[in-house]
């Protein structure tokens, strides 16, 4: 990545700015927060970056971050009554100033004024990517990168804020560039980290399968994530429906969904929502997936619901 010419005599100093919803480390879950936690822990082993990471204040997260040598956490309280800033922000935006709506980002900016040397790169990690406008003005557009976790389209404001983007896939990169004036050479692909060894099935529990209504012959497909159209679960359901005919007679295809949000419209989805059968790493789960492995069925039913 050649956004800037960095000093070879020292480690690159990189600021990570996640949305102010959940803390880092990911003691309360969260997809973005879990990915950042993996990145930080890997960098603690490799020592290739000098990391700064902003986060909402949380005592458990602060304790989990103790002992990190290559990462400095900036725990910043989220100010209350942020709606009172909206009239001022509205006037600034009418004047062409991309002011953030959430004052937490302004507190991050003020905290950075005390951090020397300044960061070489600033990576906005998901959330509302227009919120880093003041930070971009302070340090310069070329230093700022947008990590595209869920957003795949650009806006004129984002083109002003960011001098580069990190896309999870070529599809996201190409989709973003269609609506952006960004130089394609500054649109990078950075795949999410994943431990494929954790996706290897362990011994099947016949008792658990029976309790959940499965037979030994059932072919089980697992979906981990929110019931959100942007996640593409409808495409998965269409693919599973197309598998019924080719499979051997008597073999049924079942779809499992883990960590189903209580706010989801479960009545609009026609599939079974069941427990994890194997040990699987899930980014974004409110609880680690391992907590569901070998868990009593009565604990599972508190968070899972069987649908027809």
Largest sheet, order of strands side by side?
3-2-1-4-5-6-7
Mean pLDDT: 75
- Largest pleated sheet: 7 strands, parallel
Tell me the number of helical segments per DSSP (H or I, 4 or more residues long): 10
Radius of gyration: 22 Å
Shape: globular
The structural class is alpha/beta
Report helical residue fraction.
Answer: 25-40%
Low-confidence stretches: 259-308
In quaternary terms, these chains amount to single chain
Strand content: 15-25%
Tally the beta strands: 9
The SSE order reads EHEHEHHEHEHEHEHEHEH
**What distance lies between the first and last C-alpha atoms, to the nearest angstrom?**
49 Å
What does this entry look like structurally?
The protein has 308 residues and is α/β, with parallel strands linked by helices. The chain has ten helices and nine strands. It is globular and about 60 Å long. It starts with 12 loop residues before the first strand and ends in an 8-residue tail after the last helix.
């Amino acid at each position: 990545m050649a956004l800037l010419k960095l000093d070879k005599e020292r480690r690159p100093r990189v600021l990570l700015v996640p949305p102010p919803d959940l803390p880092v480390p990911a003691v309360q879950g969260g997809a973005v927060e879990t990915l950042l936690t993996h990145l930080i822990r890997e960098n603690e082993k490799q020592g290739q970056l000098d990391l700064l990471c902003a986060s909402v204040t949380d005592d458990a997260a602060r304790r989990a971050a103790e002992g990190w040598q290559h990462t400095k956490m900036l725990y910043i309280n989220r100010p209350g009554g942020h709606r009172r800033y909206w009239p001022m922000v509205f006037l600034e935006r009418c004047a062409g100033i991309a002011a953030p709506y959430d004052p937490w980002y302004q507190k991050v900016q003020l905290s950075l004024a005390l951090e020397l040397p300044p960061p070489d790169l600033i990576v906005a990690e998901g959330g509302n990517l227009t919120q880093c406008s003041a930070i971009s003005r302070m340090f310069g557009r070329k230093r700022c990168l947008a990590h595209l976790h869920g957003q795949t389209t650009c806006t004129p404001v984002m083109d002003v804020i960011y001098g580069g983007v990190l896309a999870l896939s070529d599809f996201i990169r190409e989709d973003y560039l269609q609506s952006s004036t960004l130089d394609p050479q500054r649109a990078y692909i950075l795949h999410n980290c994943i431990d494929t060894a954790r996706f290897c099935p362990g011994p099947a529990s016949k008792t658990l399968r029976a309790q959940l209504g499965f037979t030994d012959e059932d072919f089980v497909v697992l979906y981990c994530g929110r019931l959100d159209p942007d996640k593409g679960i409808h495409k998965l359901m269409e693919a599973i429906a197309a598998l019924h005919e080719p499979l051997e007679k008597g073999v049924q295809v079942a779809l499992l969904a883990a960590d189903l949000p209580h706010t989801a419209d479960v009545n609009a989805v026609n599939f079974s929502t069941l427990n994890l059968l194997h040990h699987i790493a899930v980014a974004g789960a409110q609880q680690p997936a391992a907590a569901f492995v070998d868990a009593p069925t009565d604990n599972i039913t508190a968070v899972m619901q069987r649908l027809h």
